[in-house]
Amino acid sequence: MSAPLHYAIVGCGLIGRKRAASLKPGRLRYACDLDPTRASDLAQTRPGATAIADYAQALADPAVGAVIVATLNAALAPIALAAVRAGKHVLVEKPGALNAAQLRVVQAAAEKAGVQARLGYNHRFHPALLKARELVDSGVLGPLMFLRGRYGHGGRLGYEKEWRADPALSGGGELIDQGVHLIDLAGWFLGDFTRLDGHATTSFWKMPVDDNAFLSLRTAGGQTAWLHVSCTEWKNLFSLELYGRDGKIALDGLGGSYGPEKCAYYKMLPQMGPPESTVWDFPAGDQSWALELDAFEADIRTGRAPSPGLREGIRILEIIESIYHTSGFPVSTASL
Q1: Which residues contact residue 267 at a Cβ distance below 8 angstroms, ignoring those fewer than 6 apart?
Q2: Is the same domain home to 161 and 266?
Q3: CATH of the domain at 66
């Protein structure tokens, strides 16, 4: 039986705390943040963890086998790169980098070091999404034809002054923030996209990044994903619909402010007309963070390629860069 994996978390904000809460007792060795109060607050919730300000201390500790990087976007790739070069497995939060070029550098370093690197796309592990995956894989929808996704929130007072509105720190606006989740889920169900259309725009918030984006992504086989992401969605919304020749799946909600999570399956009948309907409700708490962590540890234990890994993360950022370029938004050129 292999020894338990010990972690360092870099970035002790909301997402870092969610990641820490998913770790088994005694597995977090370091909580690292430039804000000593945040690091200390997180460390106090996990017995045995030490609060530090310099993540290099954690990377130098041979007892640390894996690093979770949960910082703002501009710091994700530099810290992930340092971690894989130190021989640590890495779970790096979406989008993983400011641009695809940065993530390619991390990918090459991870392959050279022989370590695993997973992108943090926890939405794949929400129960409604897992149910949808099960249904699609069972074949009940028949061949998939297209997918429609909407995801958005309404911002908050001062949103245009936060780090997400600074392209040097974020790499972009709503498309690189919540949009990456929709692109990831669309690719998970439909496959690689070879034709990209769409645009990003700033409709409401006075900031130099986008607050809405509209995408039409097509596979080589003609399957289409129609996606809209928004931070002018005044009532928080998550909706994903998958259409097959024999039926449809409709997913709504993510819990919390996004509403109760549910998955509806509509079976097309031979005579057509109203379909047979089956609805699954998921009122329990969000276990996606813990399930994603389990998948990460399985990657390490079995040596399988993470999915989503850096390859998927690079492609998502390439799609975003294409939409930003055609929409007149600057594409980050930051290098590592």
Answers
A1: 140, 246, 247, 275, 276, 277, 278
A2: yes
A3: 3.40.50.720
Residue 310, CA distances (Å) to 31, 40, 118, 191 in order: 24, 31, 7, 16
Question: Residue 30 belongs to what H/E stretch?
Answer: strand 28-32
Residue 156 forms part of a structural domain = yes
Q: How far apart are CA 197 and CA 15, in angstroms?
A: 31
Query: Domain for residue 184, yes or no?
Result: yes
- The structure's pTM equals 0.97
Angle formed at CA 93 by CA 14 and CA 283, multiple of 5 degrees: 60
Instruction: Give the other-Cβ count within 10 Å of 152's Cβ.
Output: 24
- Prior bond to 260 cis, omega within 30? no
104-141: b (≥16 Cβ within 10 Å) or e: bbbbebbeebebbbbbbbbbbbbbbbbbbbebbeeeeb
The CA distances from residue 223 to 122, 155, 226, 240, 314, in Å, are: 24, 32, 10, 15, 21
pLDDT in single tens digits along all 336 residues of the chain: 468 999 999 999 999 999 999 999 999 999 999 999 999 999 999 999 999 999 999 999 999 999 999 999 999 999 999 999 999 999 999 999 999 999 999 999 999 999 999 999 999 999 999 999 999 999 999 999 999 999 999 999 999 999 999 999 999 999 999 999 999 999 999 999 999 999 999 999 999 999 999 999 999 999 999 999 999 999 999 999 999 999 999 999 999 999 999 999 999 999 999 999 999 999 987 899 999 999 999 999 999 999 999 999 999 999 999 999 999 999 999 999
Q: Please indicate, yes or no, whether residues 171 and 52 belong to a single structural domain of this protein.
A: no
In terms of Cβ atoms closer than 10 Å to its own Cβ (0-12, 13-18, 19+), residue 201 is middle
Residues 133 and 263 in one domain: yes
- Helices (H), strands (E): how many in the chain? 11, 14
In a domain, 93, yes or no: yes
